[in-house]
Design brief:
Mean pLDDT: 78
Number of helices: 4
Helix content: 55-70%
Distance between the termini: 30 Å
Largest sheet: 2 strands, antiparallel
Number of domains: 1
Oligomer: single chain
Low-confidence stretches: none
Shape: rod-shaped
Order of helices and strands: HHHEEH
Number of strands: 2
């Protein structure tokens, strides 16, 4: 790679002997942006290199963390229902206002918390995606 040619200096800008040279502003040539400076950009996601795979991997790990943090309590809640039916057999026989107690436990004790967990998961997933988008938009 060869250096660009230097233009000749005009004669009127060269100081004569005994004269003080005039002040000049010296500017560096414009730099080309580096390939990966600063925050990652959306184009980095599309690349099939290690950097793009690392970005996608970090997003997927964050999404997996959100999923596991909601899936754990949901499985625990669903596993408690059969355990409760085995430990308290009177639930199958008892009725409240003509409705079996097991149906009331199922309708009032399991489904509402599952709906709350669903809303919680949606908020966490949106937060993960928003933060990841902000990371890409910072560039």
């Amino acid at each position: 790679m060869s250096a660009p040619p230097v233009p000749p200096v005009p004669a009127e800008t060269v100081p004569l002997p005994g004269q003080t040279p005039a002040r000049q502003a010296v500017r560096a040539p414009a730099r080309r942006p580096a390939d990966r400076t600063g925050a990652p950009g959306r184009d980095d996601l599309l690349r099939q290199d290690d950097y793009g795979r690392a970005l996608l991997g970090s997003l997927m790990r964050a999404q997996l963390g959100a999923t596991v943090s909601v899936l754990g309590p949901a499985i625990l809640l669903l596993a408690l229902y059969p355990l409760l039916a085995v430990l308290v057999p009177s639930l199958a026989r008892d009725q409240v206002a003509g409705i079996p107690l097991t149906l009331l436990v199922l309708g009032g004790g399991i489904y509402p918390p599952l709906v709350v967990l669903g809303f919680w998961y949606v908020r966490r997933a949106e937060r993960v995606e928003r933060r990841f988008g902000e990371l890409l938009d910072d560039r």
